[in-house]
Specification:
The protein is 40% helix and 17% strand. The protein is built from 5 helices and 9 strands, in the order αβββββαβαβαββα. The strands form 2 sheets. Strands 4-3-7-6-5-8-9 form a 7-stranded mixed beta sheet, with helices on both faces.
Length: 226
Amino acid sequence: MAIAKNRIKMAAIAAIVILPILGILVLAEAKWVHKELPYLGETVIAADGSKEYHTVSDINLINQHGQPITLDDFDSCIVVANIFFATCAEVCPAMNKQIQVIAEEFQAFPNVRFLTVTIDPEHDSVAVLANYANAYKADLYKRTFATGNKREIYDWVMNDLLLATEQRGQNFIHDDKLVIIDKSRHIRGILETSGQTLTQKLEKVKRIQDDINNLLYEYRKNDLDQ
C-alpha cells in the first residue's frame, strides 16, 4: 500500500516538473503557418467597391533621447505599439518583458520596430523614460519609448490604436495589449500579452511573433510578385 502511494506521489511530482517543460518544448518546435492578417477598425467601401481601411493617424512625440519624433520616423516599418506608465507596478513590467522577448527575436529585422508610449507624461519625463528604456537596452532592440501631450496621446490611443476603452487605476487608461501596425499604418493585430502561467505567456509571445512573420511574408510575397 505504501509503495503504491509513493508511486502515485512520484508520478504527481513528475507531472508537475515535466509537463511545463514539455509545454515549452512543444511551443519551441511549433511551426509557423502563414495566414493573411485581417484589417481591424472601421472599413469604408467606396462606390467602386474599393476599401478604405482604418488608418492610424500621425502623432507628435518625444523619445527617450529627448528628440521629437512622428510616425514618419517609422516609415517603411512594421510597428508594434503599446502603452504603459513607469509607475505601473504589475501590468506594465510584465507586458514590457513580453515585448522585450519579441523585440529580441526580431533584432535582425530593420523593418520591425517597437513603440511604447506613456499615458502618464506628467510624471514620465524624458529622464524617466531614458532610465526605463535603458533597462530594456532599447536602442539595441529597436525599441522607442516616448512621451508627449497627454490629451493628444489619449485621443490617439483610443481613436487610432483602438486601445484602452476602460479606465483602471490612478485615472489612467490602461491596456495589456499591443497593436501591430503595417507599413501603410493599418492595424493588422491587437493582441494580449499577459498570461497567468509560463506556458500561457509563451503562447502569447508565439502568437505575436507569428503575426509579425505573417506581415513580413506578405511584404516579401508582394515584392516578388512585382
